[in-house]
Amino acid sequence: MYETTYHRAGSVADAAALLAKAEDAKLLSGGQTLLPTMKQRLAAPSDLIDVSRIAEMQGITDNGASISIGAATKHADVAGSTVVKQKLPGLAKLAGGIGDPAVRHMGTLGGSISNNDPAADYPAALLALGATITTSKRSLAADEFFTGLFETALDEDEIVVSVSFPVAQKSAYAKYPNPASRYAMAGVYVAKMGDGSVRVAVTGAGQGGVFRVPEMETALAGNFSASAVAGISVGADNLLSDIHGSNAYRANLVTVMAKRAVEAAG
Hints:
alpha+beta; Uridine Diphospho-n-acetylenolpyruvylglucosamine Reductase, domain 3; 2 domains; 12 helices; 14 strands
C-alpha cells in the first residue's frame, strides 16, 4: 500500500470538510472494496476519511411507511433487524446473503451503493423499492442515483448519509450467486408497492449495472404470480458475458430468479 493520511471524522460536516480540502481523499467505512484495491496498488488516495463511527450515519429507524437505514450500517445489522424482517423481509434476506460473515460484519450499505458494483445486491433493492438516498447535499431517487457501471450521480465531495426504503405490500429477492465470490450472476428484487404498482430490478447481469424490467412490472401488476413472468425474457445483447456465464445464460437466469422472487414474496 502507498502512504496515506488517516482521519476519523466526527460528523458528516467534519467528513465533508476533510474531503473538500484533501488533495485526493477517499471515504472509508467498511473498506471491503477500497482496502483490497489499495493493497493491490490500484488506488493511492492521499487521505482516508473514516466515516464508520459517525452517529448520523448509523442505525435503522422505523418511520411507519418507510424504514431509514444509515449509510454506515453494516449488512449483518440489516439482516438481523427485527423491523426490517417484519416490514421488508426481502431486504433482510438480501443483506444476509451478501458475501460471507466477515464481509457482512464489516461492509456497509453506503459503501455498497456508492461503489455500485454491477454484481452488488443492494442496488436491486433500492431500485425495486423506489428508495430515496439522502446525502450531505441533497436527496436522490434511486432511479436517478445509479448511472452506469461503477458510476452514480454523486459529486466528488458528496457523502451518502442514509437511505429511506418505502415499505412494500410484498417484496422478495432471489439471486444466483457465483460459487466462489457469492456475487450475483443474476439477482432479481420484486416489490409490490402500497398503490398496487410493481417494480422489478435486476443486478449482476447488466453491462450498465442494475436495471428495471418494465415488461415484468406490467405483467405482475395485473397478475402477481410466477406464471406472469415465466414467459418474459430480457434481451441478451446488453447483458454481461464472461467465463462464469454467457449473456444468454444470464438472460435465462433473470427470468428464473424473477419467478423465484415472486414465489418468495407470496
